[in-house]
Amino acid sequence: MAIECKHVWAHISGYLDGNLAPDVLEEVQKHLEHCEICSAILDSTRNILVLTADDRVFELPLGFSERLHARLEEEIEGMEAPPPAVD
Amino acid sequence: MAATTSPRDEAQMIASIIAGDSRLFHELIRPYERKVYVMALSFLRNEADAEDAAQESFLKAFRNLASFRGEAKFGTWLVSITLNEARSRIRRRDTIKMESLDEPPDDYGHTSPALLRDWKEIPSEALERKEISLLLRQAVTALPPIYREVFLLRDVEGLSVNEAAEAIGISIASVKVRLHRARMMLQKNLAPQLKGVAPKRRWFPWP
Q1: Is B49 inside a domain boundary?
Q2: Which residues of A touch B60 (CB under 8 A)?
Q3: Interchain contact, A72 vs B122, CB within 8 Å
Q4: Which among B54, B119, B204 is the nearest to A47, CB-wise?
Q5: Are B117 and B69 contained in the same domain?
Q6: Nearest Cα residue in chain B from A6
Q7: Residue B99: C-alpha distances to residues A36, B87, B184, B190 (Å)
């Protein structure tokens, strides 16, 4: 095998983002075709990324939006009715 | 990713808001509510504080909108404001036991990944189970702050590497390095745990 597993792990992130240099990409791809362990690690890493990106993992608290816009509205109203100038 | 309006629409909206149509700000920020909240939560680690910090970040963005020059995307600018707000709250809150924002000395770069064999298809149905969502949230929250912020921006909120670098104020190379370490740490932490909650699949421990 041309490159070792450890070498491939160092490139998993770049591989997932598609920003490996062409020669490195080729080496990594060749390794992945033959190494079941590394391809399983790649798949599981990709799956973890897909899962953590799911909206259900980080949810907004109930009523968050309503409270936020109410507070903004107070701010806007405060701007529209400035205190009379003391001059 | 989160933005449903094109950059040009946002620029027009911002110009209108500055010109006096203040209520348009409600519409401007709708696509960013979750992003700002998640960033705040990842730092402050409790919902009430995160909500308060998120509200404060939106208010600061509103008050300082005239100083937004449009060189960055509005979303990126908003994330920078949120990061600053969250960081300053951490400093205020944890004056004694402050979370270090410096690079940890450990060799996270040499973390060996764990093995989840035969997990090729995405078990998104798994998220129906609250315990798995909780595991994922806990694992992300447990990352050291400098890795957590990069991971959330890039992998949870879908910013590009360049946008994440701009929002945090670090180089693109640093974003890539931190992102890699964050992903490997999560993989190593989560793989054995996911094995425990989804025992129907074949799991192989890392040798």
Answers
A1: yes
A2: none
A3: no
A4: B119
A5: no
A6: B112
A7: 39, 10, 21, 23
pTM: 0.73
Per residue in B6-25, pLDDT (tens digit) is 555 899 999 999 999 999 99
The domain boundary, picked from B28, B63, B93, lies at B93
Does residue B82 share a domain with residue B39? yes
Name the residue among B76, B60, B62 with its Cα closest to residue B7.
Answer: B76
B5 touches chain A (CB under 8 A): no
Shortest CA distance to B79 belongs to which of B68, B92, B95?
Answer: B68
Interface predicted TM-score (ipTM) of this complex, two decimals = 0.80
pLDDT (0 to 100) of residue B9: 84
Residue after which a domain boundary falls, among B62, B93, B124: B93
Report yes or no on B89 lying in a domain: yes
The verdict on residue B177 lying in a domain is yes
Q: Where are the domains of chain A?
A: 5-80
Closest to B144 measured CA to CA, from B76, B63, B75, B42: B42
Is B183 domain-assigned? yes
Does B123 lie at the interface with A, CB-CB under 8 angstroms? yes
CB atoms within 10 A of CB B98: 11
CA distance B120 to chain A (A): 6
